[in-house]
Amino acid sequence: MAAPLAIFNMDPNAADEVQKVAAYLEQAEAIIKVHILLGMGSFSRVFECTVRNHDETVAVKLLTDKDALPGRGREGQFIKGLRHPNLVNVFDIVEGDIEFIVLELCSGGSLQDLLHSDPEGRDTWLRVPLIERLNAGQGVAEALRFLHELDVLHRDVKSGNVFLLSKLIAGEPLSPVKLGDMGFARPIAEFDGMTQGVGTLRYMAPEVIMSGNYGASADVFSMGILMHEIVSGKMPFDKRNEASLILAITQ
């Protein structure tokens, strides 16, 4: 079954288009009900859903590119088995005509959306006591250390892959913050150094950009960029074009 064209170019503000994709997703046996569209990525659409064998609503990430599935067979089972308080839980990876990932629902959305798409949300975030924001960053770092201790690289640490478990409300304590999206994650025990440069340029370590061998230190560099963003609400390398950004990171 081919994915409908609307999945690739749908307007999130066009209710009829969202309904078409929701109806498509509901053809999957595991899906009981699609509720709302949560977000859109380059290769996916994420919906809040009710699914079989789960008492609570979950996030379902519908893939528009089958190559974006974060693991098949044994690798997929490994990713599903990862459990840490600051990792977004992966409950299931469904392969077949309609391929999707069943994830823990983080209703607070991504840190990237909060800081860069919502001026009011950004102001609210920066009014959160610094110690709470630092603790949030430490939680993400602990999740990353957990992966590294299992010889797994995340390879795309960024604010767009950091999620708040519940919505940020001014004056209330910050909810748990979780690292998600294991689409680029790979076990490093099977490799003699990574050489394929993947991830998001603004967060890439110099060795990734230069296409040399890299390992866990590349994730640590990205984590440093993320911590700057968590504290200041801004990126440390604020360059408008790719060439100047690469120069700023590598020199």
Helix content: 25-40%
Largest sheet: spatial strand order: 1-2-3-5-4
**Tally of distinct domains:** 2
The CATH architecture of the largest domain can be named as Orthogonal Bundle
Main beta-sheet annotation: 5 strands, antiparallel
CATH class (first level) name of the largest domain? Mainly Alpha
What is the helix/strand order? HHEEEHEEHHHEEEEHHH
Please tell me the overall pLDDT.
84
CATH homologous superfamily of the largest domain, by name? Transferase(Phosphotransferase) domain 1
Q: Please give the alpha-carbon distance between the first and last residues.
A: 48 Å
Structural class by helix and strand composition: alpha+beta
DSSP helical segment count: 9
- The CATH topology of the largest domain is given as Transferase(Phosphotransferase), domain 1
β-strand percent reads 15-25%
